[in-house]
Amino acid sequence: MSSRLQRLVLLACLWTAATGPALAGTEQHDQTLDPRVVLAQLRQRLDAISNYQCTEITKGGKKHLAYDNQGRGRIRETDENGDTTDLIWDGARTIEVHERLKPNGTVVYSASITPGRHLEVGRGNVPRVYLGGLLSDMLARALENGAEISVEPTEEGYRRVVIVHELGSIMAVVVNPQRGYLPVRLRRNEEIEFQEIAPGIWFPSAVWTQYGHEQTAQLKQSGPRLRFTDVRINHPDFDRLVAPDLPDGSTVADEVHGVRYVVDHGRGLTLTNQIPASPHANPATEPSPESTYSLDANQALRRIAPVSPASRPRFMGTSDPDSDPMSEAPLHNTIYIFEWDGASEPKATYTGAGFLNLSEILHYVCGLQIAQYSGPEHLLNLRLAGDWIVRRDASVAECLRDLEPIVYEQTGVNINFKKQRVDAPVVRATGIFQYRALPGSRRENDVQLFAGRSVNEDRTYVGGGSGTLAQLLRHITNRTGQRFVDDTLSSEVGVSWSDCTSSELDPVRQTGQIYRYDLARLLEHVATQTGLRFETERRTIDEWHLSIKP
Fold first, then answer.
1. Residue 430 resides in a domain
2. Closest to 361 measured CA to CA, from 308, 305, 318
3. Average pLDDT over residues 273-277
């Protein structure tokens, strides 16, 4: 028996324990066991929902979602101050619209337009996953690539679809053939409820997720992890949702064309009209990179936006000094952060796409770890496009001082940073580093960062790095949001590490028990590989707090 087939049989046994044994003696010519039939009915059911709107409710807040089957979408969020943000993907660009409520009751509108589809929009299409969209996509690829697929009946009358991918990863989903192969369980630790919103059309209403040793009764008592309410489907005016119209006087920063303007319907300046790009000035008259990418004597940092080809530094790295490495397409969809010592050429320390939100600026530009600052999510998620240059020896206080007016100029939000002393939990690391590779690990020289049951269960690697043990602990801080105190005897020992998706715990910091459970398991895995000990205690620490100026 091949190793891949052995894995398939093993997984089927595991899922039998979770979902009930397969029925003996089932006729193999049953069409409901044919993966091509499963895919066809999945697609037919998904196509019946040309678009949907709903409210997604989690323990962290509320989002209003709207998506169509072309992938266009809109996520609308309102914070505790009544300010609203819409993030829209219209099929060609990302549009972010802000509605800010002023103390006198008036609403100020602003918008930014950036090329490319940003991940926040894609992650918002959660209902499609529970409708079977993920299974449909993966089943289509599996059939195309000739992967191993098994469709089996279960005792409950459902069908278990098992896909073994080329690299050995396995996906197993229990579906209901009576509802167009609607998922019953995407994972063994999930329970999904659906509502019939139109004849024969079902939509997820609640999702429970089981952690640790919770029983099903406890799971229901704790409330669902996700709820979807106010569902509407196939709205005839969906196009209007992804083509917003702002009132006159709204400010627009169009990073696609490198222009800024004020909406004026009388002059044809609207958010969705194609605004012609401003012609670039003669390169001979444009500011030099040396003057654009530099700082005044008392400056700690500055933002450069919009970026033009002639103003970007020539030291970005091109084999031909006479060529222009920055074509117009990547220019407006790329962000660089430069560090400058005031004398030599600036050094690029970061490159990304689209924009940085304020929390990323605090980390990558100002050098703060994620556990060294706090503030409301709607402020930390403020987005700014453009390049950044920061003085190498600037203090955090100097960087935050210069950052405040930059954020106000770009977003209209008047922020304030204040250093304060707080009582907070920290994880104290002690001991001597002694590396031990995990059995069967594909990255034998790295410390594997994961919160799953085993590293082989979490096969999705999202990066890694190398440095000292002290740098590894700071890296874990930024993955988890938990501050560490390094009391080891190995701070300067060299180490490399690999990140799995399950080690990114900061997004679930507010979930309490779930976060603590995953963090404990992550630290247990790190301790096994390093020989270090980790203990949680409380200490008084410094923290930069973000708020709106009164």
1. yes
2. 305
3. 53
